[in-house]
Amino acid sequence: MSTENPELTALLNQNYQHGFVSDIDADSLPPGLNEDTVRAISLKKNEPEFMLAWRLKAYHHWLTMVEPVWAHVAYPKIDYQQMVYYSAPKLKPTLNSLDEVDPELLRVYEKLGISLNEQKKLANVAVDAVFDSISVATTFKDKLLSMGVIFCSFSEAVQKYPELIQKYLGSIVPYTDNFFAALNAAVFSDGSFVYIPKGVRCPMELSTYFRINAASTGQFERTLIIADDDAYVSYLEGCTAPMRDENQLHAAVVEIIALDRATVKYSTVQNWYPGDKEGKGGIYNFVTKRGACRGVKSKISWTQVETGSAITWKYPSVVLQGDDSVGEFYSVAVTNNYQQADTGTKMIHIGKNTSSTIISKGISAGFGQNAYRGLVRINPGATNARNYTQCDSLLMGDRCGAHTFPYIEVKNPTAQVEHEATTSKIGADQLFFCQQRGLSAEDAVNLIVNGFCREVFRELPMEFAVEAQKLLGVSLEGSVG
Amino acid sequence: MLTIKDLHASVDNKAILQGLNLTIKPGEVHAIMGPNGSGKSTLGNVLAGREGYEVSGSVTYHNQDLLSLAPELRAQAGLFLAFQYPIEIPGVSNVYLLKAALNAKRKAQGLPEVDAMDFLSSVKEKIKAVDLDQDFLYRSVNEGFSGGEKKRNEILQMLILEPSLIILDETDSGLDIDALKVVADGVNSLRSPDRSFIVITHYQRLLDYIVPDFVHVLANGKIVASGGKELALKLEDQGYGWLDNA
């Protein structure tokens, strides 16, 4: 082992007296990334040998890669040696009452319709015992476990279900996939793990919100969802409440496997800090999300509402391997002020009679830049594959931009591929019409924008959809008039 | 109800309204006619508060300074403009817009939101009056509607909101005779002693169905002639040329 960094070496050699859980809370690694960092993370998480080996391979592969530059986004160069790759969950100071919370934050909570108890939790105000999310979560977990559903943190899964992890980790997004996926594989700290056994229809929406330790997932998150034959699960990621984080780079990986006739619905509402009005200080969200429809008649559906982050780089994709499998992508991406988003999907048709649907709605306001980038590939064996793509862009004001980069590769003559794209502007005419009917300018914008996004919102679980509509209103506040 | 004094409006330094005066009492129907480019539509837009005009003069509506109010406040105070070219709002259902508009008005009046069931039955009744199928309630606002359907949809909005001052901006343009009757019936059903209308039109034809109390001729941004409904017939017969010598 390297001895270049005495601090690291000391850390690696220290004895764990209290079990790894309490140790995690205690310390963090110094900035910088080398083989020792990777070893230290794996050791701190008490991982089996195969995990360390995999992380190290990922790290060495990452060293050979260069950061991608093809996306339609611009940001200052990231110094990967200046970052901290492992740190204990930061404990925010606990406040005594909501009176001590930033009033601006409270105003946003209010507009989003977040309950008082939830506001307190989000702002880290001490809450009464009734609103103890851990006990709520435990109740849910017991119910799920009785049906054989596993829903736990990634770390816990590595300890308890190493065989499932070893079988599926990296099988959809290998560490060789891209620069950020390789980085994530080497240094990811935690995430979520879901397994739905054969024939089980998960009785509730699984939300990270109810997962124990959800607060500590950190900047490199990894999620693995496995739906066995005839299983069904709906998974919710994120939160409409504004999320602030001192880690600027977020490089998450999500892998989904759907076996025969299984269905996985994955919904995201992403509202990371977008930076201030000049675009300073926002989160870079560079995410790799991919699902594989391994089984016949399986289905994976991505729905995302992206309103946060300074930069979003994200292409939730589906590999349609099983015959008659279905892939769906429904997306709303909002860029306001100086936000930039380059997002879209890939639908890779391999099996026969596979079909995919892509509905992408991009909304640009202020100086925002919004790009849709999508690939539809029909492989030679994908007889009778079908795809329908619709990309709509809505511009607010004349300083923002919308860009569409569709790639279509068809290698089977029986394929049917449709692509439609529109760009429209919230016109003064539309606004005036709504105002003449008595709506305020703000309500008018909400009405028009929500109409534009309706096809995506109706794919979201009911409660999420209501929150997403409000969130859009808050994100676009002040962008008109 | 409405008193307009010395109203001027210009766009990019081009004067359109140049000292217009008009007084409208409750229950009256005023027709505004005039050649193309005389400022008829500008009058409707300026009264409703559309942006983009330099405006001076005074307009008093129900004892309020109308020009100082934002467009939605004017609407909430009972001013309604039926658009010459109704716009489309994709993804927003007609019934949703109607309800949002009605509730905005009720809120301004300090009333609670309308009961969902009461609202639906009232809308279903009123959509029959404009001869549109109920399906139109659930279609996106004006999207894919024919010209006549759009105009009838405007009248539906008017029937729901029950405004006190209604401006019809060339609502008759592009309508066949049957649609024209539907629109006129809708308007006439709202005529009452405390409600007034400004009917902007090119053609006397509409005024056979919506009979005005006064007819005004607008030319070069001013009212150059006023009279009873017979004035409209004279215009139909002789055109606007005689006014230049008047």
Describe this structure in words.
- Chain A is α/β, with parallel strands linked by helices.
- In chain A, 27% of the residues lie in helices and 29% in strands.
- Chain A has 14 helices and 19 strands.
- Chain A has helices spanning 6-13, 19-24, 35-44, 49-63, 103-112, 116-122, 133-146, 154-160, 162-168, 179-187, 428-436, 441-452, 454-457, 462-475; strands at 150-153, 190-196, 206-207, 221-227, 232-238, 249-250, 253-258, 263-270, 284-293, 299-306, 311-314, 317-320, 326-335, 340-349, 355-364, 369-378, 386-395, 401-410, 416-425.
- In chain A, strands 1, 2, 4, 6, 7, 9, 11, 12, 14, 16 and 18 form an 11-stranded mixed beta sheet that branches. In chain A, strands 3-5-8-10-13-15-17-19 form an 8-stranded parallel beta sheet.
- The radius of gyration of chain A is 22 Å and the shape is globular.
- With 246 residues, chain B is an alpha/beta fold.
- In chain B, the strands form 3 sheets. In chain B, strands 6-9-10-3-11-12 form a 6-stranded mixed beta sheet, sandwiched between helices.
- In chain B, strand 4 and strand 5 form a beta hairpin.
- In chain B, helix 4 packs across helix 6 (147-161) and helix 6 packs parallel to helix 7.
- Classes of the chains: A alpha/beta (481), B alpha/beta (246).
- Chains A and B meet through helix 11 and helix 12 of A and helix 2, strand 7 and helix 3 of B.
